[in-house]
Automatic annotation (TrEMBL), chains A, B, C, D:
Cofactor(s) in the UniProt record: pyridoxal 5'-phosphate
Residues where N6-(pyridoxal phosphate)lysine is found: K201
UniProt signal peptide: none
Cellular compartments per GO CC: peroxisome
InterPro entries assigned: Aminotrans_V_dom, Aminotrans_V_PyrdxlP_BS, PyrdxlP-dep_Trfase, PyrdxlP-dep_Trfase_major, PyrdxlP-dep_Trfase_small, SP_NH2Trfase/AEP_transaminase
Binding, substrate: R347
Organism taxonomic ancestry: Eukaryota, Viridiplantae, Streptophyta, Embryophyta, Tracheophyta
Name of the protein in question: alanine--glyoxylate transaminase
PROSITE patterns in the cross-refs: AA_TRANSFER_CLASS_5
CDD domains tied to this protein: AGAT_like
Length: 401, 401, 401, 401
């Protein structure tokens, strides 16, 4: 059943859920299995080992939770904090806003550091707060690595530097939903205590698996964290890890095999090559935006995102109309502007299983849509700018040399 | 990748996850989609409408939550109750035990009514408690419709009768994980306030969707329920139901299309025919057990389950060895005995997408395994007993007449 | 197993096999079935009825043969002709050449009308031959509707006019392999006696089904045709058509369900809309070629093909290198130049399940490759030319209005 | 679309097409590819090498032809023989009859050696003919290894012995359609000149690939064989083998990947273990038939088939009614009696991807159907007889020890 059939492929350029590679779709095309048989633990063991590589951690403990990113957030918070705990959280767009909302509803004392949407987290204010907090009332820094609503990437290394500089023991909790597996993420090097992502983002799987990784310090924190939790309780997982059966409740067999295939593809391409590809796609997109004479929602180069670009449209255009036409006429799925930037930006997601010609097809489509809605773009201009850059940077495909 | 390849089909007879019908596997064999496009809400709308039919409710409100049965439990409890609330809960096996454990950890005051494993919920004690509770301190009755660990089905109609008899306003919360879509479940008639199931049980989907249905009274209770909840908060869903976009966070596109296909198959077969088929499979299994000279873990006929049969083995046999051999030699997946009945029972799940000859193949396998482990079964005896019954009850397949 | 993994989608722009729509892949994702059960004839009956629509015939009799286009050719010839029979055949490219080779090897007396590769069939010579052939020694006119090697479409209506004008009884045999379901094909109106295509072309299925449609006159011809045939003998099919079981030997269950899904998609889009889409894609491609300053292999506008464009490269470039780089660097599959035009042309297939943004992605890729191999193309020029045209012609997607 | 939906799995026990293993279905769940890219030849090379193992040949040359078994027959004959050539052919059932019919229609002088249906090929008569044929007028011996209609396996080693004994140069052409990959087949040891099978039989793939293997002597024979052939001409294949591109026309990408997966599974199980499994399934079936008090159509133990059992029913029963009821009531697909044995036998196919419990489910079903149609079978009797044998012979699954 397809309610809205259109010829050819759907061009999926929302910043998640993203395109699933054919080998991953194949791997998930299967019947259920008894998860208590020896096969599923054997598979799980390899996944828990290998998934650490995408976090760049050797000391972290991963959890593959049957949930979404929202659940992964809740897991990160409730396992490490107690109601009333002070968190410092950065409001820079819709997803950081939602996380902050969750933090409040879970009973934490959230110290919100707000920036204009399009700016990164204000780390100067963080520095100030850390400097002042000699009593260590701040229990956790909560930060979104890449704000999906505005296409802003925060500098996590700086956060760690500040924490170290002020010898502050706060936990460092990171939403890597639209970064991990696409942007370089260094859990151990940056001293991240909890990092998390969702299966439907750069891992290029269906939605349904929240992947959370906890540092030894985060695991230690669970012992005193008084937040109520059952479904999301890491200790239930750890109990079954020790038993070697791994699952406190039923996992999705299909997602486990899918994750195996997804990791295999990422390692076959090479994690650093995956990052380089995202860097190329991000840069190419930004060059196209510039060629069109439009502005990136991201206000400074230091924050630009290689997984999603939020494009500002002139005031006389409603960006929702761009998204609607993309879908109605070109079978192209773009991201809407959300909340404060609704109507003002449309988003091009360029993460996950994607290559350069797919992106160029999307950019060519955006050009036509811009014309459709009355923006005087020069057809081909964005594609030309992107191509000129890509021409010099796309490597040969290693398996085909 | 198959870690443990064996020729032919795996015979999957655990009481979940169960076999997925081919048309459902096909329906899920797809790329991701933008869940904010008009297509996904259009699909969701039909699902929310049709899923009510498997609960037999017209007044309930369903939630399709990206979680497992454990999460569905948590959703039922936290949306309707406050910490400290008194619940009456029946401990009759491993899954009711886990739910009770969750209730305790969520901070409720759980009044546990325990029975021997193999017995149903003691409703006489419930009557007594309700009679005594003139102050209405009991806020909820929590009961498992079908205890998967022991193959015991509780009588929900009686629970409702008792509540009505004593004019008790307690909420009536039901775990229908291994019953709904297989056993007749009458949410409206029985005045159930929250009913829930998991996608991987009788719906015959992969794991990953907790399906929860709330009565108007349950929805009303959310207004005063003080349990902390975010991911599982129904009000976030209701907000998006009103907007017509339906999703507070990303759903699994694949499970949505899979649910559509699963419901279509159930309605094509006819819900009452689905129940009749489960009744046949349950009865046939019990006749085989009897023919083998073994005992059903379920102690009285009134509690027998048409979705799972827990078979008691003689004391000189370890039931785990039966499960191990089934898998190692016959590519047959049986259910282990859990907790108190570990080593003492093995379980045959006969729910979901399954027909009579599949069951007879399983029963023939069990006979050989019983021989393997030293039990003097007469080969063919169980199959003969089951067949004799089935011969008179299997209908012609409607689409093939 | 993927020998040559590359990130993202493969951009498949060879003129067959073409991209398979997701719903068709899904429909074929199934186990085998007993083809003698009532289900398979019931399915076959709908296919035989509906497949006639893509030939625009009501009087023709279709055969779904487990073979390729080469086998379909053989079926057309051996069922209607006898060794020694004179055929008039047009040599205008690699596929007409191969068909002529087959005709010779099957023992016919082939009267070859050769044109330059890049030209259409010389119908003036046909007129002359028909005029001269008062003895009716010509038994069949064999013509390729669309020569896949050069991107040349012949005018079949003119062929019929000539046959009628000279009242010549020769059979009119047409290879529609790269035309049917993409270009307007009017079997009844044009008096075509045998028309044929292959499943992997515009029908967008896997290879493996040769679809042949015979006029009543062609069926009559089988009675006197002395060519040896068994596997390809239509009379074996006709025998089983009468019995209502349809199959003289085992069909591919998967391709039958796939064909059902493929036809459903075509009818949902509307056959005339399918033609219009191919017309748009063809025109857009030719405009890009022109913008690049390159020449189409097709020498006159009257012959241009809306399913494949063969692009001539300057003498200092080897077109094979273009195809090689496309695959090695851009995950783009282009068609090689074959035989006489090897090294001189590369081909862009634009038929089957394809939409405009997919094509623009391909064109953007070709521009980069042209740069790679030293041709001084202006990046974005082809995309701009194609977009300018498409912008004014792409309709809204009917299911999404 | 499923015209005839029934709950649970279809029990597919026709002697082809057979059940496809899940990993093979997965491997074929893919888009088309350019077969001229380097990937497809690389894949093809491994297939041509590995497929020889199932024929037990090192000197043979395999051809993977997009056709069915009927086409594979035609390929074997037309590549090695000339019209008028004398063949000795054994008529022992429907499939040998069809092959003989083909031989006649292809213009050979067929010397038919007929036996009762249920008997094997009369090799005494062959001996006599070879002895008499000092002029070597016999150009080929054509024999079906396993006659699928009657469940009769012929002794190919004896044929070779007779040829050697009489130093007769006739080609030895073998239909291994329902034997190869299930029964031990020794092309080199037995001096078979052409052996062939179809993908939908013991290889457990969809229909659509005829696999033909030619000895050096058979390849030599192509030089003088005057039978008309184009689509089936091995020399076209050999030309492309030399070029390293392998394909004279478009192969099914899906079947190539499917064959790769199928061979991988066979080699993982071990070819000799595959044979042993078929031997177990065949023996178990025959023991059940005996326990039911019915007769095997195969008249002597030396000819019994381990891939299909044709069961004779009492004269007062129409075997077609058994097949009809199996499908209509039990979702069980059995084989019809064909031609001379129509109404007299039903067939249980037990080849390909199948295990013991699947067979026991089928046998339990047959018992109920026999009751349905009025045959006084003792329920459970066949299952008991089969189980008693299997209990002592089923090995542990190697990957699970």
């Amino acid at each position: 059943m397809d309610y809205t059939y259109a010829p050819g492929r759907n061009h999926l350029f929302v910043p998640g859920p993203v395109n699933i590679p054919e080998p991953v779709i194949r791997a998930m095309n299967r019947n259920n299995e008894d998860y208590r048989s020896p096969a599923v633990p054997a598979l799980t063991k390899t996944l828990l080992e290998d998934v650490k590589k995408i976090f760049k951690t050797t000391t972290g403990t991963p959890f593959l939770i049957p949930t979404t990113g929202t659940g992964a957030w809740e897991s990160a918070l409730t396992n490490t904090l107690s109601p009333g705990d002070r968190t410092v959280s950065f409001l820079i767009g819709q997803f950081s806003l939602l996380w902050i909302d969750q933090q409040k509803r879970l009973g934490f004392n959230v110290d919100v550091v707000e920036s204009d949407w399009g700016q990164g987290a204000n780390l100067d204010i963080l520095a100030k707060k850390l400097a002042e907090d000699t009593a260590h009332s701040i229990k956790a820094i909560c930060i979104v690595h890449n704000e999906t609503a505005t296409g802003v990437t925060n500098n996590l290394a700086t956060v760690r530097k500040l924490l170290d500089h002020y010898r502050h023991p706060a936990l460092f909790l990171v939403d890597g939903v639209s970064s991990i597996c696409a942007l370089d993420f260094r859990m151990d090097e940056w001293g991240v205590d909890v990092a998390l992502t969702g299966s439907q983002k750069a891992l290029s799987l269906p939605t349904g698996m929240g992947i959370v990784c906890a540092s030894p310090k985060a695991l230690e924190a669970t012992k005193t964290a008084k937040s109520v939790r059952v479904f999301f309780d890491w200790n239930d997982y750890l109990k079954f890890y020790k038993l070697g059966t791994y699952w406190p409740y039923t996992p999705s067999i299909q997602l486990l095999y899918g994750l195996r295939a997804a990791l295999d593809l990422i390692f076959e391409e090479g994690l650093e090559n995956v990052f380089a590809r995202h860097s190329r796609l991000g840069k190419a997109t930004r060059l196209a935006v510039e060629a069109w004479g439009l502005k990136n929602c991201t206000q400074k180069e230091e924050w630009v995102s290689d997984t999603v670009t939020a494009v500002l449209v002139p005031p006389y255009i409603d960006s929702s109309e761009i998204v609607r036409r993309a879908w109605k006429r070109y079978n192209l799925s773009l991201g809407l502007g959300l909340n404060k930037v609704a109507g003002k930006v449309f988003r091009i997601g360029h993460l996950g299983s994607l290559n350069e010609l797919q992106l160029l097809g999307c950019l060519a489509g955006v050009e036509m849509i811009l014309k459709d809605v009355g923006y005087p773009v020069k057809l081909g201009s964005g594609v030309a700018a992107a191509s000129a850059y890509l021409l010099n940077t796309i490597p040969l495909i290693p398996s085909r040399i």
